[in-house]
Amino acid sequence: MKKLLTSRTVTTLALLTAVVSTSAFGSMLVAKAETADAAAASKDKALHAKAVPSPRLLTPTNHTLLMIDHQPQMAFGTSSINIQELRNNVTGLAKAAKAFNVPTVLTTVAAKSFSGPIFPEIQAVFPDQQPIDRTTMDAWEDQRVVDKVNSYGNKKLVVSGLWTEVCDLSAVLSAIDQGYEVYIVTDTSGGVSKEAHDMAIQRMIQAGATPITWEQYLLELQRDWARSETYKATTDIAKEHGGAYGLGIFYSQEMFGGKEGH
Q1: pTM reported for the whole predicted model
Q2: Which of 82, 103, 111, 171 is the most exposed place for a label (fewest CB within 10 A)?
């Protein structure tokens, strides 16, 4: 009886081992097949890539620039960025928009009674454009501003202003909720503190806004050095306002006639 049980036990264990082994082998085959399918799908997808830009990129014709309240009184309360740097960056942004003929809306708040005129550097770039002066902290609550933005028919909106946590934030959230794709220029905006600026940027990103910088904006609009019609304007703006990058362009051009592109 003991031998019989032992024999049966051995037989059962052998059968169980065979089943487990078969099951494990089957699972291994399935896993390998799934991996092969995934790799094939990935390879198949890559083979269909095309040399075309992302629709998420900004172009000179797919967006409107909204510059909000770059005024002395607003700058006096800004501490998240050095004011000299802010003025340099804002001027670079304005010149970039002008060079690429981007529709640009200028706004101020209480210009005559409290905040003062728009930065003279911006007005110099757009000498014939009178900023829309408001009483509302949220530019999007002034129908004249919204009508002007709507008139250009662009779904993308680039926003820059003072202060980040008030004027930028309220306009950005309002525009997003009404269907605009909004980009916020972080280094041409400023808040009363670094924390105020940073938290406002985070809140706008959480709502769907895309953060960019002014120099990124300039180069994103150019994007191909073979575009000769805007090449000189782009490099001139970079040389004047682009810091070390601009100095590098100046150096290469003066020393050995350096030029991007073919």
Answers
A1: 0.81
A2: 82
